[in-house]
Write a structure and sequence with these properties.
Blueprint (H helix, E strand, L loop, with lengths): L9 E7 L4 E6 L3 E4 L7 H4 L10 H8 L17
Parallel strand pairs: 1-3
Antiparallel strand pairs: 1-2
């Protein structure tokens, strides 16, 4: 390996929003993540639906089949 061209590989902490802290080694000092193996649905077996600004509900209303769709409230357009 050539000297003085590689980044420094040192200890770092990975912090998840759930509060889980993992110590590892990386070229980045501190890493903050939104989801980790401690809170990810694949590893926990629990489904966690992250809904941003009602997008899931809007999608379900738009593509609802076989059910009667509610009439838009006054002032709303169908577009």
């Amino acid at each position: 390996m050539k000297k003085e061209i590689h980044p420094e590989y040192s200890k770092t902490t990975v912090t998840c929003v759930c509060g889980n802290v993992i110590e590892t080694r990386s070229t980045v000092k501190d890493i903050h993540v939104e989801i980790c193996s401690n809170c990810h649905p694949f590893f926990t077996g629990k489904q966690k639906l992250v809904d941003t600004a009602g997008r899931v509900e809007r999608f379900r209303r738009k593509y609802r089949r076989g059910e009667e769709q509610p009439a838009p409230a006054s002032g709303e357009t169908g577009a």
